[in-house]
Amino acid sequence: MKFKTFICVSLALGFVWSCKQAEPKEQKEIIANQVFPHKMPEEKPNFPISSAAERMFDYPAPRVQDNELFSQFKYTRLEGLDYNGGDGTITRRDPSRPVFVNGKYYMWYTKRHTKVPPIGWNRADEATDEIPSTDWDLCDLWYATSEDGFTWEEQGVAVARPGKPALGWRSVATPDILVWKGKYYLYFQAFNEPSGTRGDWCPISMAYADSPDGPWTHVGKIVVPFGKKGEWDQDQTQDPHPIVYNGKIYLYYKAAYNKWPDVRDKYAVAHGLAIAEDPFGPFEKHPLNPVLNSGHETTYFPFKEGIAALAIKDGNEAQTMQYAEDGVNFKIASTVELTPTACGFYTPDAFTGTKDGRGVTWGVCHFINAANSKDKKHSIIARVDCDLSLDVHEPWLKSTGVWHRPEVYFKQGLGNLKAKRKGLPE
Ligand code: AAL
Q1: Tens-digit pLDDT profile for residues 299-310
Q2: What whole-number distance in Å separates Cα of residue 226 and Cα of residue 22?
């Protein structure tokens, strides 16, 4: 190297080095002046900051893009499942989390195939053996398999509703799967009346099998009972979602409360936890229940040493990811948008009892408004992809927002309220 070139290179390197060195010094000065720095601190600054600034450091990462429990959700229509042209006579909804067995993914779900679409919750007294009240009335549990998670082949009924008056004679719905000591357990809602009759009145029951292809034996009894009269879950235990944690079965469930027999506008929803050492029970309700104050259907998965949850609609903490280091005391980990409804994430470590949960990248969910008119009401199952994983890094899925076309907003029109809102101030 010529002497001149050597000098130039040395000067340039020296400049870069001194810039790098300058940064922490400036940072230090600013922190010493007790002003929140321009460069995002890795830890909570050691001087008084606002509550909002402080909360940034309570999340898994202060920058949302670095937060392993933040993601956008991307949706794909499933191939291979027929809906009778969308006429409302076939519905598929509330899928389980998919599991991978012998080279195939399996999922279980609620399927309704009735002569007519549902007549509606409010007309439950007009429901018959052939006319469903709600979309999940007169249903059985079906299953489908897939080699790639996008194209699914329906395999048939897993658990049919039994004859009257056995538990679940009216409808069996909303299954989720547990794999425990090499055997398979489906937990689901068992209805003995058309839903809508006394609200959505049903407890959780179970069926078991040696293989994911069945045959399934329905235990024919309640496995997660209602709470006592006056307790929050007195009217229902729904949306069972089992995980193996601390060597036990942690089954999260949902109940709507504060309503029936009151009016529906008093409605509140929360999630509880019931723990068992054996799939047949007894399931002990956690004394701190409810453990999640928001969210509709239940979506949980092992994450690091704890459990992560997705709260979708309903509650002050709707549209959030949450995390509980102990599986019980959940805190908000991020705010999310366009969240999947009734989602079951593919979770390879859901049943391993891990204390190093790796998170999730995809799952199945449902859309309850698949019909283009009210008299064809039905739901469809879809695939959702995300990056809520410690092992995957998809910057695109960590983008901080999604822009919707104006049509999406205008679809949420004012309706009859428009006339009232129109006009000049009084
Ligand atoms: C859902 C779930 C439960 C309810 C109904 C079917 O998506 O919360 O399963 O009973 O709606």
Answers
A1: 999 999 999 999
A2: 63
Q: Mean pLDDT in the chain?
A: 93
Cβ neighbour number for residue 37 with a 10 Å cutoff: 14
CB 235 near ligand 1, within 6 Å: no
Q: Is 273 helix (H, G, I), strand (E, B) or coil?
A: strand
In tens, the pLDDT along 170-210 reads 999 999 999 999 999 999 999 999 999 988 999 999 999 99
Do 133 and 118 touch, CB atoms closer than 8 A? yes
Mean pLDDT to the nearest integer, 24-34: 72
Q: What is the secondary structure of 86-116 as a DSSP string?
A: G-SSEEEE-PPPPEEETTEEEEEEEEEE-SS
Task: Give CA–CA dist 112/92, Å, rounded.
Answer: 7
Show the tokens assigned to 56: 């940034």
Q: How large is the average pLDDT for residues 50-57?
A: 97
Assess whether the C-beta atom of 135 lies below 6 angstroms from ligand 1.
no
pLDDT tens digits, 130-149 = 999 999 999 999 999 999 99
- Centre of ligand 1 to C-alpha 140, Å, is 14
Atom of ligand 1 at shortest range from CA of 200: 10
How do residues 329-371 score in pLDDT, each as one tens digit? Answer: 999 999 999 999 999 999 999 999 999 999 999 999 999 999 9
Taking domain 72-410, whether its CATH number is 2.115.10.20 is answered by yes
Buried b / exposed e along 132-168 (16+ C-beta atoms within 10 A): bbbbbbbbbbbbbbbeebeebeebeebbbbeeeeebb
Higher pLDDT, 84 or 23: 84
Q: Which residues contact 291 (CB under 8 A, 6 or more apart)?
A: 252, 271, 272, 273, 324, 328, 329, 330
Q: Two tokens at 220?
A: 């024919």
Q: Could you give the percent of the chain with pLDDT greater than 90? A: 87
- Enumerate long-range contacts of 257-260, CB under 8 Å, 24 or more apart: 257/232, 257/233, 258/232, 259/199, 260/198, 260/199, 260/201, 260/235
Residue 37 has pLDDT above 70, yes or no: yes
- Domain range summary for the chain, segments of one domain joined by +: 72-410
User: How many angstroms does the Cα of residue 252 sit away from the middle of ligand 1?
Assistant: 14
How far apart (Å, rounded) are the C-alpha atoms in residues 367 and 94?
A: 9
Position 319: which residue type? Q
d(CA 301, CA 348): 10
What is the Å distance from ligand 1's center to 297 Cα?
Answer: 7
Q: How far is the CA of 174 from the centre of ligand 1 (A)?
A: 6
